[in-house]
Amino acid sequence: MALRPPPSEHLDPKARALWRWSGLLGTLPLLGLALVGSAALWWFQLRWWLVALPVMVVLLIGAVSAFVLPGLIWRSWRYEVGQEEVDLQHGVITMTRTLIPMARIQHVDTRRGPLQRHFGLASVILHTAAGASEIPALADPIAEDVRDRIAALANTREEL
Amino acid sequence: MAGSPVPEPARASIAARGPAVDVVIPPRRLHPAWTFIHLVRSIRGFLLPLIIVFFTGGQSDVPFLAIAGAAAVLGLIATAASWWVFRYEVAEGELRVHSGLISRQERSVPLERIQAIDIGESLLQRIFGVVRVKVETAAGGGKGSDVTLEALSRADATDLANRLRLARGRGVEGASPAQLSVETAAEGAVIKRLSTGDLLLAGATSGRVGPALAIVGGAFQFADDIMPERVWGRLSQFTSDVSVQGIVVGLLVIGLIAWLFAITSTVLTFGGFTLRRDGDHLLISAGLLDRRRSTIPLSRIQAITISEGMLRQPFGLAALRIESAGYGADVAESGVLFPLIRFTEIPDLLARATPEMAAPLRLEDPRWQRLPDRARLRYALAPAWRVIPLVIAAVWAAVELPISWWSGLAMLVGLPLAIMYGLLQYGDTGWLVDDQGRLLVRGRTIARWTAIMPRQRIQRRSMTRSPFQRRAGLATFHAAVASGGTGGRVIARHLDESQADHLLTALGSVSSPKTRVDPIREPLAV
Question: Would you say the ipTM is above 0.95?
Answer without folding.
Answer: no
